[in-house]
Amino acid sequence: MENQSNSVKQMAMTSGLFLGLALILNSVIFYVSGFPFAQASGYISYALIIGATVWTMYAFRQKDPDAGLSYSRALGLGTLNSLFASLILAFFTFVLFKIVDKTLIEKFLIFLEEQLLKSGAKDAQVDMLMLMYRKFMTPLTYSLSMIFSITLMGFIFSLIIALFFKREPKDPFHGIE
Question: What is the model's pLDDT at position 65?
């Protein structure tokens, strides 16, 4: 039983590494192109998370087809996959915001203010929110919020994707010695 748990962690760490690198590449492409906070980058990130989750569950299920894949194990696999990827991306983001380009926090706050004004928020509300954001927004808090948000999105996507990949074991006594 312990061996199966380790294989879930191992598979999630491996695919999480690749997902994290793909998310970093996505961020670098949009950063270099001059649009670090583009909405398209977010959509591509969601597609990468969904694709990596599907691939991870499929590969795990194919590794030992007789063992099957329970819904809870598939959900855990997808969530761990996103957690490991988010840790890698958060580290990269922290280095990018803290060392490479220290003006990105200010650019992000300007972008956020523009988006709030476009959405129809009142000037007083925007001023109050921006005051709060300026007080708390640092490279560390931005990176930590990224860990939370990507893991949450991975969990939500995994809730749905796991429905399609769950499979009962072919041998009901598989893994019992």
Answer: 77
85-91 mean pLDDT: 97
pTM listed for this prediction: 0.86
Q: In the beta sheet, which residues pair with residue 49?
A: none
Nearest of 68, 96, 55, 18 to residue 174 by alpha carbon: 68
106-145 tens-digit pLDDT: 888 888 888 888 888 888 888 888 888 888 888 999 999 9
Instruction: Kindly state the tokens that stand for 42.
Output: 């977010």
Give the three-state DSSP class for 73: helix
So where are the chain's domains? Answer: 2-165
Look up residue 112 and give its two tokens.
């956020």
Residue 52's nearest CA partner among 87, 91, 13 is 13
Q: How far is CA 119 from each of CA 16, 53, 68, 116, 125, rounded to the nearest angstrom?
A: 34, 32, 47, 5, 12
